[in-house]
Amino acid sequence: MTSSLGEVDATPTSHSKVQHTLKNGGEGRDTAPLAPPSRASVLEARPRSGWRQSYARKIWITDLLALIWVVYGTQIVWFGLGNAEVAMREDSRITELSYWIFSGLVVLAWMLALTLSDSRSHRVMGAGNSEYVRIVDASFRLFGVIAIAAFLFRVDVARGFLLISLPAGVVVLVSIRWLWRQWLISQRQRGAYAARVLLVGSERSVSEIARELARAPHAGYRVVGACIPSGRVAGTIENTDIPIMGSVNAVERAVLATSADTVAVTSTDELPPHKVKEISWRLEAGKQHLVLAPSIIDIAGPRIHMRPVAGLPLIHVETPRFSKGQRFAKRSLDLSVATLAIIAISPLLIALAIVVRLSSDGPVLFRQTRVGLGGKEFTMLKFRSMVPNAEDLLSTLNAPFGGAGNEVLFKMRDDPRVTKAGKTLRKYSLDELPQLFNVLRGTMSLVGPRPSLPREVAKYADHVHRRFLVKPGITGLWQVSGRSTLTWEDTVRLDLSYVENWSLIGDLSILARTARAALAPGETSA
Fold first, then answer.
1. How far apart, in whole angstroms, are the C-alpha atoms of residue 305 and residue 296?
2. Highest mean pLDDT: which of 124-133, 174-183, 201-210, 419-428?
3. By CB count within 10 A, which of 28, 372, 416, 512 is most buried?
4. How far is CA 432 from CA 28, 393, 408, 446, in A?
5. How far apart are CA 139 and CA 186, in angstroms?
6. Residue 521 CA neighbour count, 13 Å, CB half
7. β-pairing, 195-200 with 221-227?
8. Do 437 and 339 form a contact (C-beta atoms < 8 A)?
9. What torsion do the CA atoms of 458, 460, 464, 466 make, to the nearest 10 degrees?
């Protein structure tokens, strides 16, 4: 979903006050044509602080300081503090320009390129990778132009100066933007710096979209109300605290009452064909925004394309494909990382094996049948963290869903079968390290869906079997998003989302998040 971001008011309108305003506005008359909102009411409904402009200015300043540091720093490293000069040849004449001036021109041109690429637009800052892509794209385009201009106008620019400035500048810019994003996310987690969203559509679609937005507060969308076909001005959407502001014909008054700056249409079945246009016409240009929120969730951006056909804005969702190149890249990553990891932690593996062997009777490794790629079974390795006859004791445990799992995945917080050493191994996920050998053998991947037990697969619905299109992983979205505390619905959603939206960058991101999670131990392994 793409929309503008607006700051949450310091004193949000209360539910009762909003309902009173709408009722006095005449809910019974909301099917009649509505007059455009007055300038006074529009001004009153505006966010009280232009944080977007302020945030963009701060980023502009840090971009400038970063580029000055990188470009002039590169110049000093390459040429020293002397007065090196750029030679510009014209026929038999040679004109020289100090690198101190040339570097300043590069900084200004770089800042202009970042501005023209809209890398500081509120539409890309704070979520997704568009912000970083625009920085990289603008930077490479700029240096391409400089290289072409230097060739055409016979300007002798030191290649080392450019070759160092470009990658260093990109890395510093992206790093600073990432730090700003972490700060913005922390603010949004507290409810600030977010768009105030009014949802319009059926009660079911409103509930679904609101639930998905609530999963990602860092995206910066805060639902402040909803307009539904029934049109009642009382109560809230079922299973949520979202106040109902009236019918789909009361959108304009609901926007004013809630100070919403974004109207999200979640379904159009209940809206007349002209209603969406009418809503967009009545929103203040540049300040309030209309977005369409189809109930298509967990689909990666590259798979979604907007293609206007015969005046209709059709949304095309590409079928997920796994090319030979993608599979080769994933397998290459698995082999290289697993090999290096085994070599690096071999002393730790030996030490853990000794600890397991001395702590209790039984084998060092626990071998268990799991279901992998294409539904084929394989033997998964783990350091043994339970008593040797743990599988035989499973039927004697009396805990619904294991006390911590869900209706399909068995889990028990204080499993009596776990040994003392096993508790430590599980706490830090050390028991899963032997799975690196599964990765080398090709039965598992570093990142993928959770490896399933045959008894779990017997309970799967048909659509859940799509998770077997890729190899199971040592880690995955399920592990960095809650592990065994997740509901079965969420577990399936995360696994299928990974399968259908796989990317190499996504794998690297999950591996980085897993490393952070390992340093902050939580739920035990499954």
1. 13
2. 174-183
3. 372
4. 63, 22, 21, 11
5. 28
6. 10
7. parallel
8. no
9. 10
